[in-house]
Amino acid sequence: MSGIIKVGIADLKIAKGGSTLITIGLGSCVGICIYDPVAKIGGLAHIMLPDSNSSERGKQKLLMYADTAIPVLVERMLEAGASRERLVTKIAGGATMFSSFGKKESINIGEQNVAAVKKALHALNLKITSEDTGKNFSRTVEFYIETGTVLVRTGHGEMRL
């Protein structure tokens, strides 16, 4: 597959070569980009929540949760021909949304998502090479599979990971 491939919320996609994976609306959600630079295979997951054990839906909606989506993403990349030893990871998202309403949130789902993503990646011995997480704004991620470049767009500008 080549061209632009959209990744929805609680979704993941794998692509090769000249494809671009895109996900929008990363508020408290986190986008996880995993890449094999030799095989030029990349995957992008858009997770919503940290832990599948927190809900009965966790057993049915594997791609919604950090602890279940990330192992599925890695497995599908390996099936597509990626090598575990070459995988590099970049993440974006995990913002604190709606903090401008003056309420001190006791549960910051964005922070919890980022922590759960890092824990799941660590359990698979995958290191994060760069990240753009936290703060209080949403992000759009464009993942260019040919080069491994991740472009993060916000209302404040853009940056490359």
Topology, pairings included?
Blueprint: E1 3-6, E2 11-16, E3 19-26, E4 30-36, E5 41-47, H1 66-79, E6 88-93, H2 109-123, E7 128-133, E8 139-144, E9 149-154, E10 157-160
Parallel strand pairs: 1-3, 6-7
Antiparallel strand pairs: 2-5, 3-8, 4-5, 4-6, 8-9, 9-10
InterPro entries: CheD-like_sf, Chemorcpt_Glu_NH3ase_CheD, Cytotoxic_necrot_fac-like_cat
GO molecular function, one term: protein-glutamine glutaminase activity
Function: Probably deamidates glutamine residues to glutamate on methyl-accepting chemotaxis receptors (MCPs), playing an important role in chemotaxis.
Quick structural summary:
The chain is built from two helices and ten strands.
Describe this structure in words.
The chain is of the alpha+beta class. The chain has a single domain (3-160), classed as 60s Ribosomal Protein L30, Chain: A (2-Layer Sandwich). The chain contains 2 helices and 10 strands; from the N terminus they run βββββαβαββββ. The protein has helices at residues 66-79, 109-123; strands at residues 3-6, 11-16, 19-26, 30-36, 41-47, 88-93, 128-133, 139-144, 149-154, 157-160. The strands form 2 sheets. The protein has a 5-stranded mixed sheet, with no helix packed on it. A 5-stranded mixed sheet has the order 2-5-4-6-7, with helices on one face. Helix 1 (66-79) crosses helix 2. The two termini are 23 Å apart. The mean pLDDT is 90. Its EC number is 3.5.1.44. Keywords: Chemotaxis, Hydrolase. Belongs to the CheD family.
Which key features would you list for this structure?
2 helices, 60s Ribosomal Protein L30, Chain: A, five-stranded mixed beta sheet, 10 strands, alpha+beta, 161 residues
